[in-house]
Amino acid sequence: MNWDEEAEAQRKAGIDREQTFSQLCKAWGDEMRFGRVCNAYKLKSYVTHLGYMADYFGDKPIAEVTDEDIRTALRGTVRRRKLSDTTANAIFAVTKRVFTYARKKGKISINPCEDMKAPRPNEVIDRNSLQADECALIRATLDRDEAAAYAAFKQKEERQRGHDPFKGSTDDRCSLNGLVEISNIIAVRLMLATGMRRGEVLGLTWSAVNFSTKQVKVVQAIAIQKLEAGEDAFDEETERIEVKRSLSGKSSLVIKRPKTKKGIRTLFVDDDTLDHLRQWKRFQAKAFRLIRVDEEGNAISVKQTPGTPVFCSSSGGWYDPSNLNRWWARSATAEGYRDKIGFPDLKLHEFRHTQATMLLGNGVDVKTVQTRLGHARSSHTLDLYAHTIPANDQAAANLMASICAAPAEPRGTVLEIPRSA
């Protein structure tokens, strides 16, 4: 059926030929939002991608949109915005999804994307991860620097007061220099130990750390939310749990749900890392007693509670993730922590890649790794880290050979093939 015949069939079927692509996108987006089919951050990405297509045929009735319209819009968008093939694939996928929605609603009888071939996404680039000896080196370095940071904090406070800082203070303090250094080091330790995302680590409260079961529960993450013109930071329809504070006129520090439903998870933590967390909790509680006033000079009492951030700012509040990045990586004016310890190119997120690579490379099943990382699907874990699994291929071949080589008596009789005359 050509498009003229399709138009006539739609007219006879009473299909609404007036609804435009932009109107369809809004209806679909509203249904996704109100039905909470996906989180607000993913939906925002969908809306952006559909907006690229709407630039080309947004005012065109959906019943008149052809596959050639979609090809033209895709090519033009990729060329004009210099997008990757992976992004082009995502744009096509959500466009096809919207037209599928229109067909199910009876708005159209044929999906123009149905017979189109999706753009091939880019090959997954090998993700940098640490080797086992590098992991051991970083962990030993964290041990050394954590001990030094505790000692430096106590010495600084003793110099200022001439006595043990934890045995009482009459100073009016709104923040504590040195507290963040210890907090940052232990945050990195936990990323290395668990593969948690930066925002998930900084979103932990003490209620999420169970020393008895040796587990931490990931239920939220902290992030910097950039606001568009006219967007309300307190929009109740988003996936934000709470807006903690405004960082500037254009962004806020927010507590949000993890990226996926699978992101809500409980992780076991090794004994050594738990010991460091236990020591940090005791130290943090004592240090908070030194904070007596807020930034305006008003008297306050800062106490550690189950809702206190595990990794805190110098005043005991939530810690801005961008500050952790600045501490970790080199800036225009100072060396980052990674430079000081001899890993100048190591990104914080690569601790996550290290977790996946090490576990898969040592025979841990994909489902367990998926659960630990909080991926929505095991297929996603495989897409990202399948290249690490062949490291076990030789062992698998040897195992199969040993199974087949087990002593056994042949069954049946030898088949004799008669000679030809």
Q: SSE order in H/E notation?
A: HHHHHHHHEEEEEEHHHHHHH
- Mean pLDDT equals 83
The oligomerization state is single chain
Major pleated sheet: 3 strands, antiparallel
> What's the gyration radius in Å?
29 Å
Q: Any idea what the shape is?
A: flat
Number of strands: 6
Which strands sit side by side, in order, in the main sheet?
1-2-6
Q: Which structural category do the helix and sheet elements fall into?
A: mainly alpha
Which percent range describes the beta-strand content?
5-15%
Helix content: 40-55%
Can you count the helices? Answer: 15
Spans of at least 5 consecutive residues with low confidence:
232-238
Whole-Å distance between the termini?
66 Å
Helix and strand layout, with pairings?
Elements: H1 3-12, H2 21-34, H3 40-57, H4 67-81, H5 85-104, H6 132-161, H7 179-194, H8 198-202, E1 209-210, E2 215-218, E3 221-226, E4 240-246, E5 251-256, E6 265-268, H9 271-288, H10 321-328, H11 337-340, H12 350-361, H13 366-373, H14 378-385, H15 393-404
Antiparallel strand pairs: 1-2, 2-6, 3-5, 4-5
Q: What features would you highlight for this structure?
A:
47% helix; three-stranded antiparallel beta sheet; 6 strands; mainly alpha; 421 residues
Structure, described:
The chain is mainly alpha-helical and 421 residues long. It has helices at 3-12, 21-34, 40-57, 67-81, 85-104, 132-161, 179-194, 198-202, 271-288, 321-328, 337-340, 350-361, 366-373, 378-385, 393-404, and strands at 209-210, 215-218, 221-226, 240-246, 251-256, 265-268. The strands form 2 sheets. It has a 3-stranded antiparallel beta sheet with strand order 1-2-6, with no helix packed on it. A 3-stranded antiparallel beta sheet has the order 3-5-4. A hairpin with a 4-residue loop joins strand 4 and strand 5 (251-256). Helix 4 runs antiparallel to helix 5, helix 6 runs antiparallel to helix 7 (179-194) and helix 7 runs parallel beside helix 12 (350-361). It starts with a helix and ends in a 17-residue tail after the last helix. The model is unreliable at 232-238 (pLDDT under 50).
